[in-house]
Design a protein that fits this description.
- This protein is about 75% helix and about 0% strand.
- The two termini are about 20 Å apart.
- By secondary structure, it is an all-alpha fold.
- Strands 1-2 form a two-stranded antiparallel ribbon.
- The chain contains 17 helices and two strands.
- The protein folds into two domains: about 15-205, Growth Hormone, Chain: A, CATH 1.20.1250.20; about 210-405, Growth Hormone, Chain: A (Up-down Bundle), CATH 1.20.1250.20.
């Protein structure tokens, strides 16, 4: 008599062996703090560089726009490379690119060098920013801790911004803008040794057929919920870029001193740390897509308040604090949904595609706001557009299905 064996469940893709979760998260937080902090302080160099080189502000702005769009375009490729060959290698290369961009800015004598600097800075943050590091966190953390692990990286990004602002300001005041760029470039070196703790790319269980890049793309592009995430993250980029870039001008238009805008952006950074942590915890209690619906609805209400509540120092700070809670709280929920759908193997690459939509939104948010103000001499229409997009994003997230694709739901017969 022979035994009839039950068919075995097909082995599924799993993460590569990595260092302890605490070590991966600590290193990733420092890396993303440096990368995102340096990205946020470039505005300090607008006036000294344009004055020194005798070029218009549009030239410097174009260099930063190049950095943003290159970051978005490079994110999927950096993610794919990290998923296949290891996040650490990508971070090392990204750190070197960041240093190169800062040194080129230091050496710049005209428009061409500034634009080249923007190109390298964009490539650098593509290799060291959130989009690459969420893959390392997802592979290091068990599924039940994945969203919290990704939220921790988002908090590291917020801390980087808070620390980079006074650090850069102090360097410029103490050493001048040119020497400060060299010191910041040296600071970026810290990312390279930390990259060695992030582990390699994902591997598959013994006996399983590895999913190729082409198969991963085909699977994602055929998944309706993936495209809903892409559409929603466009709105996130539109909102945050518009608010962060145009808030100082909006505050000045209302007759408030420039210090109010600085305080407001610091408040946004503090709120961002808290909000990102809360978003990571919320995934244990409500479905991630509903959490995203609430975030975008909350943004729409804040923008509506900005339109109708009198603009004073305290209302600007209050609205900025509320918006800070909803700032990057989208990142752990959006990226962990990508991991839920498709697993951690190609997560950085697939989230990079979603993030490219974010950067397109960022580009349009900054540009359209300036265009609307030039035509109407007011940001009112822009606030209404932001409200409408917030409602749109809440609607497109509502039908998302928080469950893995069929490949990951294989059951034994």
């Amino acid at each position: 008599m022979t035994d009839t064996a039950m068919p075995a469940r097909p082995p599924l893709p799993v993460a590569a062996p990595v260092k302890p979760l605490w070590l991966v998260l600590m290193s990733a937080c420092v890396i993303v703090a440096v990368a995102m902090g340096l990205r946020q302080v470039m505005g300090f160099y607008l006036i000294p560089i344009t004055t020194e080189l005798k070029v218009g502000r549009e030239v410097f702005g174009l260099a930063m726009a190049v950095a943003n769009i290159v970051w978005g375009m490079g994110a999927p490729f950096a993610g794919a490379f990290g998923d296949k060959f290891g996040t650490g290698r990508v971070v090392m290369l990204g750190g070197l690119m960041t240093m190169t961009g800062l040194i080129l800015m230091y050496l710049a004598q005209g428009e061409a060098m500034l634009l080249l600097s923007g190109l390298f800075l964009g490539l650098g943050v593509a290799g060291t920013g959130v989009t690459v590091l969420v893959g390392a966190a997802a592979r290091a953390a068990p599924p039940e801790k994945r969203t919290s692990a990704i939220a921790t990286i988002g908090m590291g990004s917020g801390m980087g911004v808070l620390l980079a602002v006074p650090y850069t300001h102090l360097l410029i005041q103490s050493f001048g803008w040119q020497q400060s760029l060299l010191i910041i470039a040296a600071t970026a070196l810290v990312m390279i040794p930390l990259a060695t703790t992030l582990g390699g790319g994902a591997v598959h269980a013994a006996g399983s057929k590895p999913q190729t890049l082409k198969e991963a793309l085909r699977e994602a592009f055929a998944h309706p919920s993936f495209w809903l995430l892409v559409a929603g993250f466009f709105v996130c980029g539109f909102h945050v870029a518009f608010y962060s870039v145009h808030l100082p001008a909006y505050v000045a238009d209302k007759g408030l001193p420039p210090s109010i805008a600085v305080k407001a952006l610091v408040v946004v950074g503090i709120g961002n740390i808290i909000g990102t942590w809360l978003a990571g915890k919320s995934a244990a209690y409500i479905p991630k897509q509903y959490g995203l619906c609430l975030i975008y609805l909350g943004r729409a209400l804040i923008f509506l308040g900005i339109l109708y509540v009198p603009t004073t120092e305290w209302t600007v700070l209050a609205f900025s604090a509320a918006l800070g809670l909803l700032w990057l709280s989208t990142v752990p929920l959006t990226s962990s949904l990508v991991a839920t759908f498709f697993g951690p193997v190609w997560m950085s690459m697939l989230f990079g595609i979603v993030f490219f939509s974010h950067q397109v939104g960022s580009f349009l948010g900054v540009w359209i706001a300036g265009r609307i103000f030039d035509v109407t001499k007011s940001y009112d229409l822009m606030w209404w557009i932001s409200i409408g997009l917030g409602l749109f994003a809440a609607l497109v997230h509502f039908p998302i299905s928080e469950k893995p694709v069929a490949r990951l739901q294989a059951k034994p017969a």
